[in-house]
Amino acid sequence: MSSYRKQVYRNRQRLFSNDLKALLYAFGDSPAPNHETIQTLEDVLTTYMIDLIVAANHSRLAHGRNRLKIDDVKFVLRKDPTKLARIHDLQKMDREISKAKKLFDEKAQKKE
């Protein structure tokens, strides 16, 4: 992936702190992990996501599209079978949930 120049903001908003705390605890860390550990993990995660989206944006531009699509992200992750399989699983789950919601809505409308 492309190397994105990391910009450091001193008082930037931390978006994933609570989720990372829960993940660390789930993987065996203490219930109150070190604050610096959370910040470091969040920096790594944010940098990875930025690199991924920048690379997907390059794919979007190469294909001449105006909007970023999941196919662009899949293209970037094509050499990482684990992450690509996870994307496929999440897409399949999303389709199943959408079908279930439609069935539920149809049943609710028939009762009325």
TrEMBL record:
PANTHER family per the UniProt record, alphabetical: TRANSCRIPTION INITIATION FACTOR TFIID SUBUNIT 13, TRANSCRIPTION INITIATION FACTOR TFIID/SUPT3-RELATED
Family (UniProt): Belongs to the TAF13 family.
Transmembrane segments: none
SUPFAM superfamilies: Histone-fold (SSF47113)
Coiled coil: none
GO biological process terms held by the UniProt record: RNA polymerase II preinitiation complex assembly
Name of protein: Transcription initiation factor TFIID subunit 13
Entry superkingdom: Eukaryota
Organism: Ogataea parapolymorpha (strain ATCC 26012 / BCRC 20466 / JCM 22074 / NRRL Y-7560 / DL-1)
GO CC aspect terms: transcription factor TFIID complex
Keyword terms of this UniProt record: Nucleus, Transcription, Transcription regulation
UniProt key word Transcription: yes
Origin organism lineage: Eukaryota, Fungi, Dikarya, Ascomycota, Saccharomycotina
Signal peptide coordinates: none
Recorded GO MF terms: protein heterodimerization activity; translation initiation factor activity
Location in the cell: Nucleus
